[in-house]
Amino acid sequence: MIKIESLNKSFGRIKALNDLNLNVKRGELLGIIGPNGAGKTTAIRMACCILKPDSGDIIIDGYSIHDDPIKIKSMIGYLPEEPNLYERFKAKDLLKYFAELYGVPKNDIDGKIQELLELVGMTKRSEDRINTFSKGLRQRISVARALVHDPDIIIFDEPTMGLDPETANSIRNFIKNLKGQKTMILCTHYMEEADLLCDRVAILNEGKIRDVGTPQYLKSKVHGEVILKIRVKNTGDINLIKNKLIQFPSVGAVNLVGGEYLISLKQRNEIHDIVDVFGNEVLSINTKEPTLEDVFIQAVKG
After folding, report:
1. CB neighbours (10 Å) of residue 177?
2. Does domain 221-301 have CATH number 3.30.70.940?
3. Which of 89, 158, 240, 298 is deepest in the core (most CB within 10 A)?
4. What are the structural domain ranges in the chain?
5. Phi and psi, residue 276, nearest 5°
6. What does residue 271 show for φ and ψ, rounded to 5 degrees?
7. In whole angstroms, what is the distance from residue 107 CA to residue 202 CA?
8. Model-level pTM?
9. 27 near 183, Cβ under 8 Å?
10. Helix or strand holding residue 201 (H, E)
């Protein structure tokens, strides 16, 4: 459905995308995770024909972003991280404006708007102006706006960022209910969100895909059956400590996050000896099963 081919983009001396290649299957929900500045928003803005690449192409259902941008825009519903909404419009008038802009048949517009308002829980606020809405309500009406032309593809850029837990959960449920009906891309900083919702997850860092696969597959690649978390007073020389730790047969990977060492273990039988490496510097010890966050840390820092 979507093929990203050798995509490159620089902003001055900053290389935002570096020979990026990625495929999205029809009906799939693909998550893209990565640190700030990894190139996530740049890539999806190119897919939406908002930015042009320096080189490379994106083919969407056979159409190129270079040759068919208008066609591609009609196929995509895009929810940016910070949606720009016309403040003085009423909710229903905003949706009507975009429905007409996208060429939705006039006889279908009123019914479509009513359906979308109900879908995002905004029926009772349809006559209220956008400038009276909270961030959560603005996000709901932005979702409706992205769907007003019934696109085949929906792209979400940090859809739950900064929302209260109830609204964030309702947005996640909405995305979950669309699975299989639409082809979707979800850019998120929330690892649990990607794990919960996505069919596959791509890890993007420094403009390149570092790994891609189902959440289960990616978690299985973390070298160990358990993650040992050791918080210390003084992190010391990480290279020296790594060299000591990898001498243990059970140790797979070692990462330092803040003041905490994350150590992937194949077995638990050497935990006591591993902890002794840190001596009196140990503040706390915990173990946990590998998560998508561990995969992310290993891919980005490893």
Report:
1. 10
2. yes
3. 298
4. 2-214, 221-301
5. -60, -25
6. -55, -45
7. 41
8. 0.79
9. yes
10. strand 200-205
Fold identical between 2-214 and 221-301? Answer: no
Contact partners, residue 270, CB within 8 Å, separation at least 6:
248, 249, 250, 251
Angle between helices 91-101 and 135-147 (to 10 degrees): 30
| Residues with Cβ within 8 Å of residue 136, at least 6 apart in sequence | 163, 164, 167
* φ/ψ bin of 158: left (φ > 0), alpha (ψ from -120 to 50), beta (otherwise): left
* Whole-angstrom distance, CA of residue 119 vs CA of residue 111: 12
Q: What angle do helix axes 135-147 and 106-119 make, rounded to 10 degrees?
A: 140
Give residue 38's identity as a one-letter amino acid code: A
Tokens describing residue 124: 């009772």
Q: Which two tokens stand for residue 187?
A: 């850019």
Fold category of 2-214 in CATH: Rossmann fold (3.40.50)
CB-based contacts of 120-123 (< 8 A; 24+ apart in sequence): 120/144, 120/174, 121/170, 122/91
Q: Are 251 and 263 in contact (CB under 8 A)?
A: yes
pLDDT tens digit at each of 302 positions of the chain: 999 999 999 999 999 999 999 999 999 999 999 888 889 999 999 999 999 999 999 999 999 999 999 999 999 999 998 888 999 999 999 999 999 999 999 999 999 999 999 988 899 999 999 999 998 899 999 999 999 999 999 999 999 988 888 888 888 988 998 999 999 999 998 898 999 999 999 999 999 999 999 998 888 777 667 889 999 999 989 999 999 999 999 998 899 988 999 998 988 889 999 999 999 999 999 988 878 888 888 788 75
